[in-house]
Amino acid sequence: xxxxxxxxxxxxxxxxxxxxxxxxxxxxxxxxxxxxxxxxxxxxxxxxxxxxxxxxxxxxxxxxxxxxxxxxxxxxxxxxxxxxxxxxxxxxxxxxxxxxxxxxxxxxxxxxxxxxxxxxxxxxxxxxxxxxxxxxxxxxxxxxxxxxxxxxxxxxxxxxxxxxxxxxxxxxxxxxxxxxxxxxxxxxxxxxxxxxxxxxxxxxxxxxxxxxxxxxxxxxxxxxxxxxxxxxxxxxxxxxxxxxxxxxxxxxxxxxxxxxxxxxxxxxxxxxxxxxxxxxxxxxxxxxxxxxxxxxxxxxxxxxxxxxxxxxxxxxxxxxxxxxxxxxxxxxxxxxxxxxxxxxxxxxxxxxxxxxxxxxxxxxxxxxxxxxxxxxxx
Length: 378
What we know:
By secondary structure, this protein is mostly beta strands. 6% of the residues lie in helices and 37% in strands. Helix 3 links the parallel strand 1 and strand 2 (72-76).
């Protein structure tokens, strides 16, 4: 790959966003009817507006579990206080007692606040059909607490610098029986329950929890929509490979639309904290459009074990400390619409098809850029 000149890099760094008329991130709406009319929210869902009589700091998982049912999308009006996801018990996992840590077993909470069995698998909350926010000040935030967990250990047989070999990260169930190895980061903030989940038009914030890698929003359902989200710093990762790799959006199995999202890997202090921003596994096809990602501390946008056609239009993916995009074990066609500049790719067993849009379409580019750390923003 030919690197750009220093003058070209400076021009690119200071360039205005591509297609500025397309708003990325949440948009202000006065009510849910207007929001639904202007967004790609499911028409067959039931929309439940946050009850102002609920405590302002009520845990979203408690709302999902006790006040919503399968087809409900929780609507979050804008307000000054964030909507809280309780972190005091970490990533609960039903039926799990512990996982393998670097120096022994790490306890896992398997009941919600001691009052009912957990509904989650290494998650803080399980949304019913999803969440619809009414603007950027509808903020979902991981709560302050003293709970922490060490970074995940690597996969089985990983050789350490000191020469010893890791046994792998396994979980032990509540009967004390050791079960399967956990390959990849299992931890996530919110997972969806419905077969066609929707997450749209809100801001999400997270924080360091002791070094453990975790994803922001995840689903493995047949049809998934993520739109107008600001997920800057909404996840944590420390590696570009399992088990320290996690994404702001991590999805598997189903088709997907990721549209007009901001997926920045820096926290509010400007520090790089997120690894691979968007991770797609075993998907039969999907679309990412008008979305900004990049500046990951490790990893890159990732697709693996995918089939079908995957299209990216007007995607900024800049300044990762790694490649721009990687495909692994894939049998798929990737359409990159418009001019494609400075791609940094890792490709294994796949076909890449690049197409130009019809001449009447807006001039757009899909940018994937790899610069050595020495010339990247810190």
